[in-house]
Protein backbone atom coordinates (compact mmCIF):
# COMPACT_ATOMS: atom_id res chain seq x y z
CA UNK A 1 0.00 0.00 0.00
CA UNK A 2 1.36 3.41 -0.92
CA UNK A 3 0.40 6.96 -0.04
CA UNK A 4 1.36 10.40 -1.12
CA UNK A 5 1.82 12.71 1.84
CA UNK A 6 1.82 16.35 0.84
CA UNK A 7 3.25 19.27 2.74
CA UNK A 8 -0.27 20.65 2.84
CA UNK A 9 -1.64 17.57 4.62
CA UNK A 10 1.20 17.66 7.14
CA UNK A 11 0.82 21.40 7.72
CA UNK A 12 -2.93 20.99 8.22
CA UNK A 13 -2.03 19.11 11.39
CA UNK A 14 1.35 20.67 12.17
CA UNK A 15 0.50 24.39 12.02
CA UNK A 16 -2.42 24.28 14.50
CA UNK A 17 -0.39 21.92 16.71
CA UNK A 18 2.53 24.34 16.48
CA UNK A 19 0.35 27.27 17.55
CA UNK A 20 -1.24 25.37 20.44
CA UNK A 21 2.13 23.97 21.50
CA UNK A 22 3.77 27.39 21.51
CA UNK A 23 1.13 28.64 23.93
CA UNK A 24 2.60 26.49 26.72
CA UNK A 25 6.06 28.13 26.80
CA UNK A 26 4.45 31.51 26.05
CA UNK A 27 2.61 31.26 29.36
CA UNK A 28 5.95 30.86 31.15
CA UNK A 29 7.71 33.41 28.92
CA UNK A 30 4.97 35.94 29.62
CA UNK A 31 5.39 35.45 33.37
CA UNK A 32 9.16 35.79 32.95
CA UNK A 33 8.99 38.89 30.74
CA UNK A 34 6.41 40.69 32.90
CA UNK A 35 7.94 39.73 36.25
CA UNK A 36 11.46 40.47 35.00
CA UNK A 37 10.49 44.11 34.45
CA UNK A 38 8.82 44.94 37.75
CA UNK A 39 10.27 47.77 39.84
CA UNK A 40 11.12 45.75 42.96
CA UNK A 41 13.41 42.69 43.14
CA UNK A 42 12.96 41.96 39.44
CA UNK A 43 15.98 39.64 39.15
CA UNK A 44 14.98 37.62 42.21
CA UNK A 45 11.39 37.37 40.94
CA UNK A 46 12.58 36.22 37.52
CA UNK A 47 14.81 33.61 39.13
CA UNK A 48 11.88 32.34 41.23
CA UNK A 49 9.63 32.05 38.17
CA UNK A 50 12.37 30.04 36.43
CA UNK A 51 12.83 27.64 39.33
CA UNK A 52 9.11 27.05 39.89
CA UNK A 53 8.47 26.68 36.17
CA UNK A 54 11.15 23.99 36.04
CA UNK A 55 9.49 22.06 38.88
CA UNK A 56 5.98 22.49 37.48
CA UNK A 57 7.19 21.40 34.06
CA UNK A 58 8.52 18.24 35.68
CA UNK A 59 5.12 17.49 37.24
CA UNK A 60 3.22 18.32 34.05
CA UNK A 61 5.54 16.29 31.84
CA UNK A 62 5.42 13.31 34.19
CA UNK A 63 1.62 13.16 34.45
CA UNK A 64 0.86 14.88 31.15
CA UNK A 65 2.04 11.87 29.16
CA UNK A 66 -1.64 10.94 28.90
CA UNK A 67 -1.73 13.11 25.77
CA UNK A 68 0.73 10.91 23.90
CA UNK A 69 -0.76 7.64 25.16
CA UNK A 70 -4.37 8.61 24.36
CA UNK A 71 -3.36 10.04 20.99
CA UNK A 72 -1.46 6.87 20.06
CA UNK A 73 -4.29 4.48 20.94
CA UNK A 74 -7.12 6.58 19.48
CA UNK A 75 -5.23 7.33 16.24
CA UNK A 76 -4.47 3.63 15.70
CA UNK A 77 -8.16 2.79 16.13
CA UNK A 78 -9.05 5.60 13.74
CA UNK A 79 -6.62 4.09 11.21
CA UNK A 80 -8.25 0.68 11.70
CA UNK A 81 -11.73 2.31 11.35
CA UNK A 82 -12.78 1.07 14.80
CA UNK A 83 -13.11 4.20 16.99
CA UNK A 84 -16.24 2.92 18.75
CA UNK A 85 -14.13 0.42 20.70
CA UNK A 86 -12.18 3.12 22.58
CA UNK A 87 -14.73 5.95 22.97
CA UNK A 88 -14.88 5.55 26.77
CA UNK A 89 -11.08 5.41 27.22
CA UNK A 90 -10.37 9.20 27.27
CA UNK A 91 -12.69 9.99 30.20
CA UNK A 92 -11.32 7.05 32.19
CA UNK A 93 -7.80 8.34 31.56
CA UNK A 94 -8.85 11.84 32.59
CA UNK A 95 -10.33 10.47 35.83
CA UNK A 96 -7.11 8.64 36.73
CA UNK A 97 -4.78 11.51 35.94
CA UNK A 98 -6.76 14.29 37.63
CA UNK A 99 -7.10 12.14 40.75
CA UNK A 100 -3.31 11.82 40.83
CA UNK A 101 -2.93 15.58 40.39
CA UNK A 102 -4.95 16.24 43.54
CA UNK A 103 -2.65 13.89 45.46
CA UNK A 104 0.32 15.83 44.05
CA UNK A 105 -1.12 19.10 45.39
CA UNK A 106 -1.67 17.58 48.84
CA UNK A 107 1.82 16.10 48.82
CA UNK A 108 3.78 19.16 47.68
CA UNK A 109 1.94 22.20 49.07
CA UNK A 110 3.10 21.80 52.71
CA UNK A 111 6.69 21.08 51.61
CA UNK A 112 7.15 23.85 49.03
CA UNK A 113 10.03 25.45 50.93
CA UNK A 114 11.88 22.15 51.25
CA UNK A 115 11.35 21.37 47.57
CA UNK A 116 12.82 24.64 46.33
CA UNK A 117 15.76 24.46 48.71
CA UNK A 118 16.70 21.38 46.66
CA UNK A 119 17.01 23.74 43.69
CA UNK A 120 19.50 25.83 45.73
CA UNK A 121 16.95 28.64 46.21
CA UNK A 122 17.52 30.72 49.34
CA UNK A 123 16.51 33.97 51.05
CA UNK A 124 14.36 36.23 48.84
CA UNK A 125 14.36 33.85 45.87
CA UNK A 126 13.17 30.99 48.09
CA UNK A 127 10.41 33.15 49.57
CA UNK A 128 9.20 34.12 46.10
CA UNK A 129 9.34 30.51 44.91
CA UNK A 130 7.08 29.39 47.75
CA UNK A 131 4.59 32.25 47.23
CA UNK A 132 4.41 31.68 43.48
CA UNK A 133 4.15 27.89 43.67
CA UNK A 134 1.48 27.74 46.38
CA UNK A 135 -0.85 29.61 44.06
CA UNK A 136 0.09 28.14 40.68
CA UNK A 137 -0.12 24.52 41.84
CA UNK A 138 -3.93 24.77 42.08
CA UNK A 139 -4.07 25.09 38.30
CA UNK A 140 -2.44 21.67 37.98
CA UNK A 141 -5.66 19.58 37.62
CA UNK A 142 -6.99 21.97 34.97
CA UNK A 143 -3.76 21.69 33.01
CA UNK A 144 -3.80 17.87 33.07
CA UNK A 145 -7.46 17.81 32.03
CA UNK A 146 -6.67 20.02 29.03
CA UNK A 147 -3.64 17.89 28.09
CA UNK A 148 -5.78 14.72 28.08
CA UNK A 149 -8.44 16.40 25.93
CA UNK A 150 -5.70 17.56 23.54
CA UNK A 151 -4.54 13.94 23.25
CA UNK A 152 -8.09 12.87 22.37
CA UNK A 153 -8.41 15.52 19.67
CA UNK A 154 -5.03 14.54 18.24
CA UNK A 155 -6.04 10.91 18.08
CA UNK A 156 -9.09 12.05 16.11
CA UNK A 157 -6.69 13.78 13.65
CA UNK A 158 -7.83 17.22 14.86
CA UNK A 159 -5.35 19.86 15.96
CA UNK A 160 -7.62 22.82 15.20
CA UNK A 161 -9.64 22.77 18.42
CA UNK A 162 -6.54 22.45 20.66
CA UNK A 163 -5.18 25.51 18.83
CA UNK A 164 -8.34 27.51 19.63
CA UNK A 165 -8.23 26.46 23.28
CA UNK A 166 -4.55 27.31 23.59
CA UNK A 167 -4.92 30.72 21.92
CA UNK A 168 -7.77 31.71 24.22
CA UNK A 169 -5.78 30.63 27.29
CA UNK A 170 -2.70 32.52 26.13
CA UNK A 171 -4.64 35.74 25.53
CA UNK A 172 -6.28 35.50 28.96
CA UNK A 173 -2.90 34.87 30.60
CA UNK A 174 -1.12 37.77 28.86
CA UNK A 175 -3.87 40.28 29.70
CA UNK A 176 -4.18 39.19 33.32
CA UNK A 177 -0.40 39.05 33.74
CA UNK A 178 -0.07 42.72 32.83
CA UNK A 179 -3.12 43.77 34.86
CA UNK A 180 -2.35 41.80 38.04
CA UNK A 181 1.45 42.11 38.12
CA UNK A 182 1.65 45.82 37.35
CA UNK A 183 -1.81 46.78 38.57
CA UNK A 184 -4.11 49.53 37.28
CA UNK A 185 -3.64 52.91 38.88
CA UNK A 186 -6.59 53.67 41.15
CA UNK A 187 -8.26 50.27 40.61
CA UNK A 188 -5.90 47.34 41.23
CA UNK A 189 -2.78 47.37 43.36
CA UNK A 190 0.34 45.77 41.79
CA UNK A 191 0.57 42.15 42.93
CA UNK A 192 4.04 41.48 41.45
CA UNK A 193 4.98 37.78 41.27
CA UNK A 194 1.79 36.68 43.02
CA UNK A 195 -0.24 38.36 40.28
CA UNK A 196 1.54 36.27 37.67
CA UNK A 197 0.52 33.10 39.52
CA UNK A 198 -3.14 34.12 39.67
CA UNK A 199 -3.08 35.01 35.97
CA UNK A 200 -1.81 31.54 35.11
CA UNK A 201 -4.54 29.80 37.15
CA UNK A 202 -7.27 31.88 35.51
CA UNK A 203 -5.95 30.98 32.05
CA UNK A 204 -5.79 27.27 32.93
CA UNK A 205 -9.39 27.29 34.20
CA UNK A 206 -10.68 29.02 31.07
CA UNK A 207 -8.85 26.48 28.88
CA UNK A 208 -10.31 23.55 30.82
CA UNK A 209 -13.88 24.85 30.47
CA UNK A 210 -13.47 25.49 26.75
CA UNK A 211 -11.84 22.07 26.21
CA UNK A 212 -14.76 20.30 27.91
CA UNK A 213 -17.28 22.27 25.84
CA UNK A 214 -15.62 21.52 22.50
CA UNK A 215 -15.11 17.83 23.26
CA UNK A 216 -18.76 17.39 24.21
CA UNK A 217 -20.25 19.43 21.37
CA UNK A 218 -17.87 18.69 18.47
CA UNK A 219 -17.04 14.99 18.92
CA UNK A 220 -18.74 11.74 19.85
CA UNK A 221 -16.38 11.24 22.83
CA UNK A 222 -18.30 11.33 26.15
CA UNK A 223 -17.16 12.88 29.43
CA UNK A 224 -19.43 10.68 31.55
CA UNK A 225 -17.35 8.16 33.47
CA UNK A 226 -18.41 4.53 32.96
CA UNK A 227 -17.06 1.17 34.04
CA UNK A 228 -15.65 -1.43 33.54
CA UNK A 229 -12.38 -0.05 32.24
CA UNK A 230 -11.80 -0.15 28.51
CA UNK A 231 -9.86 -3.18 27.22
CA UNK A 232 -7.04 -0.81 26.17
CA UNK A 233 -6.60 0.55 29.71
CA UNK A 234 -3.82 -1.95 30.45
CA UNK A 235 -1.94 -0.86 27.32
CA UNK A 236 -2.58 2.77 28.26
CA UNK A 237 -1.18 2.29 31.78
CA UNK A 238 1.93 0.47 30.46
CA UNK A 239 2.52 3.36 28.05
CA UNK A 240 2.13 5.83 30.92
CA UNK A 241 4.54 3.90 33.15
CA UNK A 242 7.21 3.80 30.44
CA UNK A 243 6.67 7.49 29.71
CA UNK A 244 6.72 8.18 33.45
CA UNK A 245 10.21 6.67 33.80
CA UNK A 246 11.26 8.47 30.62
CA UNK A 247 10.01 11.80 31.90
CA UNK A 248 11.74 11.34 35.24
CA UNK A 249 14.99 10.98 33.27
CA UNK A 250 14.10 14.08 31.25
CA UNK A 251 13.55 16.07 34.41
CA UNK A 252 16.80 14.89 35.94
CA UNK A 253 18.40 16.86 33.12
CA UNK A 254 16.30 19.95 33.83
CA UNK A 255 16.84 19.62 37.57
CA UNK A 256 20.63 19.55 37.33
CA UNK A 257 20.61 22.37 34.77
CA UNK A 258 18.47 24.54 37.05
CA UNK A 259 20.26 23.57 40.28
CA UNK A 260 23.75 24.24 38.91
CA UNK A 261 22.58 27.55 37.41
CA UNK A 262 21.11 28.62 40.74
CA UNK A 263 24.31 27.71 42.59
CA UNK A 264 26.28 30.15 40.41
CA UNK A 265 24.25 33.17 41.56
CA UNK A 266 21.04 35.12 40.89
CA UNK A 267 22.23 36.57 37.57
CA UNK A 268 23.09 33.06 36.31
CA UNK A 269 19.73 31.47 37.15
CA UNK A 270 17.97 34.52 35.69
CA UNK A 271 19.99 34.21 32.46
CA UNK A 272 19.35 30.44 32.41
CA UNK A 273 15.61 31.10 32.87
CA UNK A 274 15.51 33.32 29.78
CA UNK A 275 17.62 30.94 27.69
CA UNK A 276 15.80 27.74 28.68
CA UNK A 277 12.38 29.29 28.11
CA UNK A 278 13.47 30.42 24.63
CA UNK A 279 14.73 26.88 24.03
CA UNK A 280 11.34 25.57 25.18
CA UNK A 281 9.69 27.99 22.74
CA UNK A 282 11.79 26.61 19.88
CA UNK A 283 11.07 23.06 21.03
CA UNK A 284 7.33 23.62 21.01
CA UNK A 285 7.46 25.24 17.58
CA UNK A 286 9.25 22.17 16.24
CA UNK A 287 6.77 20.05 18.19
CA UNK A 288 4.10 21.07 15.69
CA UNK A 289 5.75 18.76 13.15
CA UNK A 290 6.46 16.19 15.86
CA UNK A 291 2.72 16.23 16.61
CA UNK A 292 1.91 15.65 12.95
CA UNK A 293 4.31 12.70 13.07
CA UNK A 294 2.62 11.43 16.23
CA UNK A 295 -0.89 11.68 14.76
CA UNK A 296 -0.17 10.31 11.29
CA UNK A 297 2.22 7.54 12.34
CA UNK A 298 -0.41 6.06 14.66
CA UNK A 299 -3.02 6.21 11.91
CA UNK A 300 -0.70 4.64 9.30
CA UNK A 301 0.36 1.91 11.72
CA UNK A 302 -3.29 1.10 12.45
CA UNK A 303 -3.89 0.86 8.69
CA UNK A 304 -0.63 -1.16 8.22
CA UNK A 305 0.49 1.41 5.64
CA UNK A 306 4.26 1.11 6.04
CA UNK A 307 5.16 2.92 2.83
CA UNK A 308 3.30 5.95 4.15
CA UNK A 309 5.26 5.73 7.40
CA UNK A 310 8.58 5.87 5.55
CA UNK A 311 7.45 8.75 3.35
CA UNK A 312 6.16 10.61 6.41
CA UNK A 313 9.50 10.25 8.23
CA UNK A 314 11.51 11.45 5.24
CA UNK A 315 9.40 14.55 4.72
CA UNK A 316 9.33 15.40 8.43
CA UNK A 317 13.13 15.20 8.60
CA UNK A 318 13.38 17.81 5.82
CA UNK A 319 10.71 20.08 7.25
CA UNK A 320 12.05 19.79 10.79
CA UNK A 321 15.62 20.69 9.85
CA UNK A 322 14.32 23.64 7.82
CA UNK A 323 12.24 24.90 10.75
CA UNK A 324 15.15 24.42 13.16
CA UNK A 325 17.54 26.36 10.93
CA UNK A 326 14.96 29.12 10.47
CA UNK A 327 14.58 29.44 14.23
CA UNK A 328 18.34 29.66 14.60
CA UNK A 329 18.58 32.45 12.00
CA UNK A 330 15.69 34.42 13.55
CA UNK A 331 17.29 34.07 16.98
CA UNK A 332 20.61 35.32 15.61
CA UNK A 333 18.96 38.36 14.00
CA UNK A 334 17.11 39.18 17.23
CA UNK A 335 19.99 38.19 19.51
CA UNK A 336 20.20 41.36 21.61
CA UNK A 337 16.55 42.55 21.49
CA UNK A 338 15.40 39.18 22.85
CA UNK A 339 17.50 39.52 25.98
CA UNK A 340 16.41 43.12 26.54
CA UNK A 341 12.78 42.00 26.29
CA UNK A 342 13.09 40.03 29.52
CA UNK A 343 15.29 42.17 31.74
CA UNK A 344 17.31 45.37 31.92
CA UNK A 345 19.75 43.95 34.47
CA UNK A 346 23.11 44.18 32.67
CA UNK A 347 24.68 41.41 34.76
CA UNK A 348 21.93 39.03 33.68
CA UNK A 349 22.17 40.12 30.04
CA UNK A 350 25.93 39.55 29.95
CA UNK A 351 25.44 35.95 31.06
CA UNK A 352 22.53 35.41 28.67
CA UNK A 353 24.30 36.79 25.59
CA UNK A 354 27.31 34.65 26.44
CA UNK A 355 25.41 31.36 25.99
CA UNK A 356 22.38 32.06 23.78
CA UNK A 357 24.33 31.09 20.64
CA UNK A 358 24.46 27.51 21.91
CA UNK A 359 20.66 27.45 22.18
CA UNK A 360 20.44 28.59 18.55
CA UNK A 361 22.87 25.92 17.31
CA UNK A 362 20.76 23.27 19.07
CA UNK A 363 17.60 24.04 17.08
CA UNK A 364 18.09 21.77 14.01
CA UNK A 365 19.40 18.97 16.24
CA UNK A 366 16.38 19.37 18.50
CA UNK A 367 14.11 19.18 15.45
CA UNK A 368 15.31 15.69 14.53
CA UNK A 369 15.08 14.43 18.11
CA UNK A 370 11.60 15.84 18.74
CA UNK A 371 10.14 14.70 15.40
CA UNK A 372 11.20 11.09 15.86
CA UNK A 373 10.15 11.31 19.49
CA UNK A 374 6.66 12.20 18.23
CA UNK A 375 6.67 9.42 15.63
CA UNK A 376 7.63 6.78 18.22
CA UNK A 377 4.88 8.01 20.55
CA UNK A 378 2.35 7.64 17.73
CA UNK A 379 3.62 4.11 17.10
CA UNK A 380 3.22 3.29 20.79
CA UNK A 381 6.94 2.41 21.15
CA UNK A 382 7.16 3.92 24.63
CA UNK A 383 9.60 1.34 26.00
CA UNK A 384 12.24 2.25 23.43
CA UNK A 385 11.69 5.96 24.09
CA UNK A 386 12.22 5.24 27.78
CA UNK A 387 15.51 3.46 27.18
CA UNK A 388 16.85 6.18 24.88
CA UNK A 389 16.11 8.89 27.47
CA UNK A 390 17.73 6.88 30.25
CA UNK A 391 20.86 6.48 28.11
CA UNK A 392 21.06 10.11 26.97
CA UNK A 393 20.46 11.45 30.49
CA UNK A 394 22.52 9.20 32.74
CA UNK A 395 25.28 8.14 30.36
CA UNK A 396 25.67 11.40 28.41
CA UNK A 397 24.22 14.48 30.15
CA UNK A 398 24.83 13.86 33.85
CA UNK A 399 28.54 12.95 33.59
CA UNK A 400 29.14 15.86 31.19
CA UNK A 401 27.37 18.49 33.28
CA UNK A 402 29.27 17.47 36.43
CA UNK A 403 32.56 17.49 34.53
CA UNK A 404 31.87 20.89 32.98
CA UNK A 405 30.87 22.26 36.40
CA UNK A 406 34.08 21.03 38.02
CA UNK A 407 36.01 22.64 35.13
CA UNK A 408 34.36 26.03 35.74
CA UNK A 409 32.35 26.27 32.50
CA UNK A 410 29.14 27.29 34.34
CA UNK A 411 26.29 28.08 31.90
CA UNK A 412 28.44 27.13 28.92
CA UNK A 413 28.87 23.66 30.38
CA UNK A 414 25.14 23.24 31.00
CA UNK A 415 24.10 24.09 27.45
CA UNK A 416 26.94 22.18 25.78
CA UNK A 417 25.94 19.11 27.82
CA UNK A 418 22.35 19.64 26.70
CA UNK A 419 23.49 19.71 23.06
CA UNK A 420 25.12 16.28 23.40
CA UNK A 421 22.01 15.10 25.26
CA UNK A 422 19.83 16.10 22.28
CA UNK A 423 22.13 14.30 19.82
CA UNK A 424 22.00 11.15 21.97
CA UNK A 425 18.20 11.33 21.99
CA UNK A 426 17.67 11.70 18.25
CA UNK A 427 20.26 9.43 16.64
CA UNK A 428 19.09 6.06 18.08
CA UNK A 429 15.46 6.82 17.18
CA UNK A 430 16.28 7.45 13.52
CA UNK A 431 18.32 4.24 13.30
CA UNK A 432 15.67 2.11 15.06
CA UNK A 433 12.81 3.48 12.94
CA UNK A 434 14.56 2.57 9.70
CA UNK A 435 15.44 -0.89 11.02
CA UNK A 436 11.80 -1.54 11.91
CA UNK A 437 9.90 -0.17 8.94
CA UNK A 438 12.13 -0.15 5.86
CA UNK A 439 11.90 -3.97 5.52
CA UNK A 440 8.10 -3.85 6.02
CA UNK A 441 7.71 -1.07 3.45
CA UNK A 442 9.84 -2.98 0.91
CA UNK A 443 7.68 -6.09 1.37
CA UNK A 444 4.46 -4.07 0.96
Give the structure's gist in a few sentences.
The chain is mainly alpha-helical and 444 residues long. The protein is built from 16 helices and no strands.
What is this structure's SSE topology?
Elements: H1 7-35, H2 42-63, H3 66-79, H4 89-108, H5 112-117, H6 123-136, H7 140-155, H8 160-182, H9 192-218, H10 233-264, H11 266-302, H12 306-333, H13 335-342, H14 346-379, H15 382-406, H16 411-443
Helix pairs in contact: 1-2, 1-8, 1-9, 1-11, 2-6, 2-10, 2-11, 3-7, 3-11, 3-14, 4-7, 6-9, 7-9, 8-9, 10-11, 10-15, 10-16, 11-12, 11-14, 12-14, 12-16, 13-14, 14-16, 15-16
Which characteristics define this entry?
mainly alpha; 16 helices; 0% strand
Number of domains: 1
Number of DSSP-assigned strands? 0
Classify the helix fraction into a percent range: over 70%
Rounded radius of gyration (Å):
21 Å
Q: Largest beta sheet, briefly?
A: none
Low-confidence stretches: none
Oligomer: single chain
Mean pLDDT over the full residue set: 87
Cα shape = globular
Q: Give the amount of beta strand, in percent.
A: under 5%
Termini gap: 6 Å
- Number of helices in the DSSP assignment: 16
The ordered string of helix (H) and strand (E) elements is: HHHHHHHHHHHHHHHH
- Structural class, by secondary structure, is mainly alpha
